[in-house]
Amino acid sequence: MSAAVAQPLAAGLPAHVRRPSTLTIWRWEMRKLISQKRTYLGLSINVAFPLIFVVAQLLRGHPGHDSGNIFFSYVTQSGLATPVLTLFFESAFLLPLAASLVAGDIVANEDSNGTLKTILTRSVDRGQVFTAKTLAAMTYTTLAVLISAATATIAGVAAWGFHDVITFSSSIVSAPKGLLLVFAANACYLIPLLAVVCIGVLLSTVTRNSAAAVVGTLAITLLLALVTVIPGLEGARPYLLTTEYNNWHGLLRTPTDWAPILHSLWVCALYALPCLAAAYLVFLRRDVAGG
Amino acid sequence: MAEQAPAPRPPAGQSAEGEHAPPVRAQGLVKRYDEVVAVDHVDLHVRTGDVYGFLGPNGAGKTTTLRMALGLITPTEGSVELFGRDPLRLGARALEGVAGFVEAPRFYPYLSARKNLELLAALDGGEARERIDEVLEIVELLPRARHRVGGYSHGMRQRLGIAAALLRRPRLLILDEPATGLDPAGMRDMRLLIRRLASEGITVLLSSHQLPEVQELCDRVAIVDSGRVVYEGALADLRRQGGAGYRLRTTDDSLALRLLREAPGIEHASTGEHGLAFQAEEREVGALSLSLAQAGVGILALTPELATLEDLFFRLTEGHAATRSAEDRSASDAEQRKDGQQAPALTGNAAESR
């Protein structure tokens, strides 16, 4: 080490050090996410799926499907049917997987790496760090949904054109309105998905183990999905997070049915807010003893 | 008579001494994990300008104490203040002017050294960003600044830890085993750097296993063992308490030994491979040299030997361990005696029943 540098290393410290905003910490959380390979795993799965879907339909070469989903029979008539169908498939598992991969890792990774003590001994408060991390996980999840939707839209339009599209009510809407509805549907789907992020952040904070938090978050969502098919528990169905994965269907009806969206807002809040509050309190009070 | 205005109350979590408060003041610090007491009523007083050595065997509670000082873990009892500010109550505000690391410094392995420091500078408000090259140069990592930290050796990470601490222009530097993993040249450079920081007015709290390093650098020390402070104070006082020893070589060692044993104030006189050894106050040594001369014994060499920190460290920690095991034994004996009072009755009953 060079001890011969002339500049003073110490003191001269201002009475109050300028502290960073939560936005600055969030920006660095995003940079950390961008620099990690695992970030791209969930994202690439959700980008690959629409492409595989479009290629498979092109190879299949004829329209029509007997699944009962009206958009299947319309898939080769408008490229805008593709993002609706891919959201339909991805919403149950692939997008929650992407959300879990990042949310479950966001605090636990710092724990296992020992870097939590590095950042908590700088000029930032624990509350700021927690807020920035939660916002970063939510931002990533939002981007994953939007990128997946954009990929599906571009691939669908490239394959079958930018034409008017059908709705669940069998009415036809213009292509520009259809495009707006596609992205609005994805935005609505974000409501339950961000609640999944909150569960992931809680498990990440409490377990201090990335694998346990990621698997735990997915396991909870799968359990909730399974509860919906258990006979005798039909009464619980409207209050399950996984039921809210379909809240966006109301947007693609004529007239627009807002009830499922409003319902999902408070049901998802029932999952998200206690998880966030518990995670925040644990993060604020916990001992940082590892690393 | 005009009433004197009451002194303004300090903000919550901050002591009334303000900027004159000592860099570190821990009082009755306890950390308990279930039944295990990791830190047991530790008091520390690090004064401005100290290079303060924090010594103890592995598992003595040094790192736990430092973590409590930095607000990373909550004490079970007691309090700790940095410049009069409580890190638990004030969070990041209590760490203004404080930098360092506990255990090994950790960084994001997938980011370069420069990106890691840019991140930390941003978390310090961004002003330190322009000093990144300077601190990297000090720790001689500038040529490797663009490399990912994941590929760094342990020693390089230690140096990066120092660089990260210096970014904050600290008034108090807390270093937990900074020389661990460094090669001899790196250790020498680390000592030079710490000496330089101290000369610039930075107070250094240095936890170390390297006793010669502490002996060379520190003016005050705390020695902990099993979570308890067994000594806190000036290193010079500790060494004086350890007793001043002398080595003596004469023209007639057997006569000299007899005189040593008869002389007042001379203790533990013995003969060894390299002549005679004894302990005494300085004034007694003067009188001794005169009496040796009067007896016709020529002095070939008379050299003072202060106890080394290593001697004292082991004397304190092993002595403490011995006391503790004696206490444990007597407690265990007492338990056995308590059980034993019942045992004969049981035996008696058993005998009766037989």
List keywords for this structure.
heterodimer; A: about 290 residues; mainly alpha; two-stranded antiparallel ribbon; about 65% helix; globular; B: about 350 residues; alpha/beta; Rossmann fold; Alpha-Beta Plaits; 2 domains; six-stranded mixed β-sheet; four-stranded antiparallel β-sheet; 13 strands; disordered C terminus
Could you explain how this protein is built, in words?
The complex is a heterodimer of chains A (291) and B (354). Chain A is an all-alpha fold. Chain A has one domain. Chain A has 11 helices and 2 strands. Chain A has helices at 22-35, 39-60, 70-73, 81-90, 94-103, 108-113, 116-120, 126-160, 175-207, 210-227, 259-285, and strands at 165-166, 172-173. In chain A, a hairpin with a 5-residue loop joins strand 1 and strand 2. In chain A, helix 2 (39-60) packs antiparallel against helix 5, helix 4 packs across helix 8 and helix 5 (94-103) packs antiparallel against helix 8. The radius of gyration of chain A is 22 Å and the shape is globular. The model of chain A is unreliable at 11-15 (pLDDT under 50). Chain B is of the alpha/beta class and 354 residues long. Chain B has 2 domains: 18-239, P-loop containing nucleotide triphosphate hydrolases (Rossmann fold); 243-306, Alpha-Beta Plaits, CATH 3.30.70.930. In chain B, 40% of the residues lie in helices and 24% in strands. Chain B contains 11 helices and 13 strands. In chain B, a hairpin with a 2-residue loop joins strand 11 and strand 12. In chain B, helix 4 (132-138) packs across helix 5. Chain B is elongated.
Q: How do the SSEs of chain A run, as a string of H and E?
A: HHHHHHHHEEHHH
Question: What separation lies between the terminal Cα atoms of chain A?
Answer: 25 Å
- Shape designation of chain B: elongated
Can you count the beta strands of chain A? 2
Q: Quick one: CATH class of the largest domain in chain B?
A: Alpha Beta
Secondary-structure arrangement, i.e. CATH architecture of the largest domain in chain B = 3-Layer(aba) Sandwich
Count of separate DSSP helical elements of chain B: 11
- Oligomeric form: heterodimer
List the domain count of chain B as a whole number.
2
Give me the side-by-side strand order of the main sheet of chain B. 5-6-7-3-8-9
Q: Strand sequence of the main sheet of chain A, in spatial order?
A: 1-2
